[in-house]
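Re: the request from the purification team.
They wanted to know what the chain is likely to look like in 3D before they choose a buffer screen. I agreed to run a prediction and write the result into the notebook, where they can find it.
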Amino acid sequence: MLMVGLCLPVVSQKKSKSKKKDKDTIEEKSETDENPIEAITKSCKSFDGLFKVYQDTADGSVYMEIREDQLDTEYIHFAQIMDAPLDFFQRGTYGYEKVFTFRKSFKKMEVRLENTTTYFDPDEPLSRAKNANINRPIIYSEEIKATSKDGKRFLIKADPLFLKESFVQVKPRPNPNNRNPFALKMGSLSSSKTKFLSIKSFEENTDFRVEYVYDNPSAGNFWGAWSGDLTDPRFLSVKVYNTLIKMPDNDNKPRYDDPRVGYFGQQVTDMVDRSSTPYRDMISRWHLVKKDPDAELSEPVKPIVWWIENTTPEDFREPIREGVLQWNRAFEQAGFKNAVVVKIQPDDATWDADDIRYNVIRWVSLPRGLYGGAFGPSVFNPRTGEMLGADVVMFYGFIRAQMTEEAVFAHGMETPQHFTGKQCSYASELAANFNAGLTMIRALDRGEAAETELIKQSLMMLSLHEVGHTMGLNHNFKASHFLDNEKIHDKEFTSENGMTGSVMDYSGVNLALDEEKQGLYYEVTPGPYDKWAIEYGYKQFDPEEEEAGLNEILSRSTQPELKFGNDADDMRAPGRGIDPRAQTWDQTSDPIQYAIDRFKLIEKSMDGLMEKVAEENTSYQFFNNSYYFLTGDWWSGLTAISRYPGGVYVDRAFIGQEGAGQPLTPVPYKDQKRAMQVINQYGFSPDAMMAPSEIYQKLQMQRRGFNFWGRTEDPKIH
């Protein structure tokens, strides 16, 4: 008993310690049960916004918190290139919008893409089979890391969703037609190097910047000899914005596409419609609502606000601002006053340009001049067509005379756009056209004031064109046939009505053969087609009057100034299209005569090239460039004329529409023959494109390191 008595305190003490240990465990477990998400994320930096995001401060891994009310709710994903090698992407290139949902499946969280290309009338019995053979892929499925005690919040690991090509395919598919053994290849995605660069979360969007790194050990270092943007081609980085966007919750009603007017949008097939054209294609447009619905002209409740980023050179800001504001003239025809507002971003701005609520005109400078220009992509809701945000990206190379011979003759060739089809090459090609105009002004000694005006008007035109894309409009390559060869030089008329029917054409620099008759160089205001297209896209109607109202607008498509033909029709390269009016870089209703005048202007410019363009104590590089700017412009004129022999005019008017012609009409014989005669004289004759002989001996490129290695440096005139 004594021994037992002596042992009891020890046993009792052990029991007490055991109970204390169990209590600590229970208390710890209880605390973990109450805050399991916080227990995992306590060492993380958090980002509050549309989605709550956490990033571990030690290893950089990322978690997302999904609330119960965010499950089975549609969101929009879109991707944009932040930076990349120019052989694959341009900075700012947009991807396609995707609709997705988060779904909980037992212990896992899934991300499923939703199909937006089909429509079933819910009142039709066939709608019960709407999911048959429709792919709704699961792009992510991972075990839920933690669940809040109330079961309404779920923590998931975000790394597999964004550090792999889950949402977006970054690496382009191999081009089977590219047989160049030296073509640059991206290699394999590196799981160890690919990482998050930054995370931002706002009220309506959550933004993940990711650097996708690709390894290709077999790529040769020789590439860096002529691609200044590549440091080492064995290791390539593509930086991408992955943005998750809140699905708008408003009364925006879709407006449907029509082949007689050109809008971007979402193609949707009505799966129960029995007609030959079961289409419910929605146009993309901003959600504009009148403050005063009864007023013929009213300000919108929420205007389209553009910010000119503070990266913009100060002397460019006013022409860009003026160009963008000109779109208000088009919106007035749709019943809106001051629909577009332009502001300058102050240097001390507290808002972030990555917030989708801000539409920004950005400027960058690229290492290679070929891609100098701009483009204006936008993101929209695939369910309704509502425009959600937009950027215009402008490249400083547009102004610099940094062009190679290959770049000058690259009209009609596509710039890299593996990421998306939403790419506009107007500005890239406009760079050569602008420099051709600048060269002619200098060679013909038309003065510094003319140069200044050329730069101003080119910036206005570029702004009008690219912002026009963000209004929803696609190209109109028939618009250049608006005026004849005399009226296009009427400055008073064109300042008010436009030189072409639309700023969405690829309009070249307008130079008069006679300096006394010089009008505008470029468009400075939307044309009649632009106003008509905006009217169709944005005019508001009472519900019972909308169909009749839209049909009345569309019935005017046969008016000559409203001709329309987009990229599906254009003939910028052999084998594309059949209608020679749907052409880039042509001008006026008689482009053959206009081209003849341009050839004569170039010949006059060649005579004064050396005296007016070459500068003392410089190399011959700029002189060399100037010669190729002129011959490139000559080539553009010949290209446009060459589409007339064998051409067919296309008319997309509907059956019975007033003013409609035949759907397909051969180009008149006399115009085909006239085009061939001009090509013979200015293209194929022995003295065609001949410059003064002393010019050829001066076409010397400036040597830079070993950049002539492997080739001769004599000019390849023919």
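For the purification team: The radius of gyration is 31 Å.
Please add any questions underneath this entry.
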